[in-house]
Description:
Elements: H1 15-26, H2 29-41, H3 45-73, H4 77-84, H5 91-123, H6 126-129, H7 132-143, H8 147-165, H9 170-195, H10 201-208, H11 217-230, H12 237-242, H13 251-279, H14 290-300, H15 305-339, H16 343-363, H17 378-415, H18 425-452
Helix pairs in contact: 1-9, 1-13, 1-15, 2-11, 2-13, 3-4, 3-11, 3-13, 3-17, 3-18, 4-5, 5-8, 5-15, 5-16, 5-17, 7-14, 8-15, 8-16, 9-13, 9-15, 10-13, 11-17, 11-18, 13-14, 14-15, 15-16, 16-17, 17-18
The protein binds tryptophan (TRP).
Amino acid sequence: MKKENNNGRESFSSSFGILVALAGSAVGLGNLWRFPYLVGENGGAAFILIYLAFVFLLGIPILLSEFIIGRRSQASARKAFQILAPDENWGFVGLLAVICCTLILSFYSVVGGWGIEYLVKSFKFDFTSASDENLASMFSTFSTSTWTPLICHTVFLSVTAGIVVSGVKKGIESFSKVMMPVLFVIMIGIAIRSLTLPGGEAGVAYLFKPDWSEVDGHTFLAALGQAFFSLSLGSGMVITYGSYVKKHEHILKLSVETALADTIFALIAGCAIMPAVFAFGISPGEGPGLVFITLPYIFGKLPMGGYIAILFFFALLLAALTSSISVMEVIIASAMEEFKLKRKTAVISVFLGIWVLGCLCSLSLGPLNEWKVVGKTIFDLFDYLSANVLMLIGGLLVVFFVAWKLGKKAMHDELTNGGTLKIPNWVIDTLYFLLRFIAPAAIVIIMIFQYVS
Ligand code: TRP
């Protein structure tokens, strides 16, 4: 992505550039860390099927709606609504997005920090030399300790801030153009090894044979929240990137491609983790530590596993960074606009605020474990509030805005680029129907369920 400047709005250089930027934001810890452990907590294949249905029935139409808002207004999240609906007060949607991104970045940075520690461990060949018992306790010993996770969180957040302070440089974009395929190849390799482990069949069955008996309303909420989190929806990100997209780009195609890339990464991560979980007798419902507990086992059993671990955690960190900068950028852009701050001042203030919140998240897994709000640790609370509450509300407002306020003509106009692209009417009709009725109904029903159950 090119840097935004004040003299005129810049845009992405090519369709591929947009795709890489969007996929860079979408593919991250959501795919490699959050998806596998949610699959494990929510019963496997049935959860995955519900997740896929949400990605395609709701995720793509909502991604498209945010694209429409961003590209049509050519403005960032907060201004976009005001430009498109000047007589009404929609600015609060931008504020919600900023709050949501603040919560996300706080715990995202902690998990990114875990990635740093695990990269350091892989350089020391800790996984290939440790005994099985040590591998099992390694993650909990580390994540519940006080200082190392705090230092790692500080490093991760500093790197994120360092990149954001100088604008989203071409460097990171071209770097992710190389690293995303590398990550893909490494993940495929790990998945193949995991799928062929003795005892891995149970994991394959867990991933592909649905057991509907465990499914309840919470499964739907978790799947919807994950679809939003993984596609970076309902939080102003796609609106902002959409505003850098030129008028001749095929935004429907881009939305579908982004969703597909994101889903493929998530499924590969599932195939890399679950068979190994079963083969090594780890509990699939282990929670947020699942990936960090499971992968070192696999590395310990692979030829050249020590080196693959280095590559993997390096790639994971890059995937995390291309996402964390996009989350921070939403906050920075709004802070600069709202308080007329220089980029540097905005980054320093936001860094300090998020650093404190992130420290609380990190400590809530160890020394502050007893501090609970509505029964959740601070870490869990931030994750829950963002993915299961704020992003869904943001998505609902976006859908409402596009389907009921902008209307079908505007949507047709944006999808076909003013009539120059041939898109069959039934496609537009279906998307419109999904946006107008199905998406809001599904989000509202699922959100209400969590309060009554
Ligand atoms: N989608 C990213 C992931 O899967 C996380 C992310 C990036 C995000 N930007 C976001 C989440 C904006 C919410 C909002 O890791």
